[in-house]
Amino acid sequence: MIRTIYLILIFILILGCQDKVHYEKPEGLLKKEEMIEILYDMHLAVGTSNIQNVHFEKNRNYTSLVYEKYGIDSTRFLEANVYYTAHIQEYEEIFEEVERRITELKQVMEPQSDSTSVISNKIREAGRKQDSIRKVLKSKN
User: Can you give the pLDDT at residue 86?
Assistant: First the structure.
C-alpha cells in the first residue's frame, strides 16, 4: 500500500515538472527580429541608466524611450516577452543574438576607452613630472 502511494506521488511529481505551459500567440505579436532589437536596446538603456547624461541626471529610466522608439507600449512588450518565454527555444535564440551584439559592441568600445585611459594616464604622468621639476627648482632657490 505504501509503495503504491509512493509510486503515485512520484508519478504526479514527474507530470508536474513537465514543461506544459503553452501560451497562444497574442494578436500583434512582435516578430523575433523586433524582439532582438528591443531587448538589445533595453539592455543598453538599463546599462546606461547609472551614467550621468548631458543634463547631469543619473539613475534615469530610459526604457520608456525604447518603447517610444519602436512605437509600442509596455503591455505589448510584456505580452511578447511572456510568449517567447513560454517558447524557450526561440527565446534562447533571441538572447544569444542579443548577447552576440552586446559583445560585439563591447569589443568596438573597449579599445576607445583603453586609449582614453592611456592618454589620461600620460597627462597625469606629465603633470607629476612638472610638479617634480617645480619642487627641484624651488629647493634650489
Answer: 86
